Amino acid sequence: YLIFTNIIHDHPDIYKTSEEFEKVFSEFIDKIKASDGTVLTKSKNLLPDGFKLNVPGTFNIENANNAYAVCKLIGITDEKIINGLEKYTGCKRRFEKIAEMNDILFYDDYAHHPLEIEAVLKAADEWFPDKRIVALFQPHTYSRTKALFLEFANSFSDADIVGIADIFASARETADPEVTSEKLVEEIKKHHPKPDNVKYLGGWQEATGFLIKTLKSGDIFITLGAGDIYKIHKVLLDRLKNA
After folding, report:
1. 135 near 121, Cβ under 8 Å?
2. Residue 209, C-beta contacts closer than 8 angstroms, at least 6 positions apart
3. Which residues is 133 bridged to in the sheet?
4. 14-50 as b/e, with b when 16 or more CB fall inside 10 Å?
5. Which SS3 state, helix, strand or coil, does residue 42 take?
6. Rounded mean pLDDT of 12-22?
């Protein structure tokens, strides 16, 4: 069984257009169907009234509903499906809670595509409506940052404070001087409701220094990106312990 949650153009260093990207998925779907597999793209709502997930975000509700559909297809009872879904508390690098210190909650997410970032920050805002959300994003690959530049610029509205670290390059590319994190910051400022709260933070030392001065009791801090940005949590937590 194969579930498609969405097909959005990505990996532009390999697939130059959305048509090229979709063609690969189409070929994959044909292979699954040829081998008598079942492909789900969108199922009707099966979740019962009053059901609550232990992870935030509309996307997780959709994921749960699709999982429900597959479980029904293979004969699992409603009771067992609900029991399993209620026990689900998330996975590593997907709105993963890293720590809590000084009344600050620390989270990490692998989000590296504009729609993923938008979805995660919206989920954080819905999950913690009265909290200040501080986001630190590490763009992943020059090619993606360049191809989806304007989409990235419009993805951070639900964060109260936005920090942008230097681009994390793929092993299969070289630096592209036409796209930088500094340029991305300037573009985000044009679309963010609080442009003065959008900062270029460069490397880890500068980012950590900024966060030590900025984070305060009651904040939600979340790192975003498919590179090594998640490692900054240990550096930051160690600094806070010794502050």
Report:
1. yes
2. none
3. 220
4. ebeeeeebeeeeeeebeeeeeeeeeeeeebeebbeee
5. coil
6. 88
230, 217, 146: which is closest to 183 by C-alpha?
146
Q: What is the pLDDT of residues 93-125, one digit of tens each?
A: 899 999 999 999 999 999 999 999 999 999 999
Burial 131-170 (b: 16+ CB within 10 A, else e): ebbbbbbbbbbbbbbbbbbebbbebbebbbbbbbbbbbbb
The structure tokens listed for 167 are: 């681009």
Which one, of 54, 76, 60, lies nearest residue 1 by Cα? 76
Which residue, among 207, 219, 233, has the nearest Cα to 133 in the 3D structure? 219
How far apart (Å, rounded) are the C-alpha atoms in residues 218 and 131? 6
**pLDDT digit string (tens) for 44-91?**
788 888 888 888 888 888 889 999 999 999 999 999 999 999 999 888
Residue that the structure tokens 């709502």 belong to: 45
d(CA 233, CA 224): 12
| Count of other CB atoms within 10 angstroms of residue 235 | 14
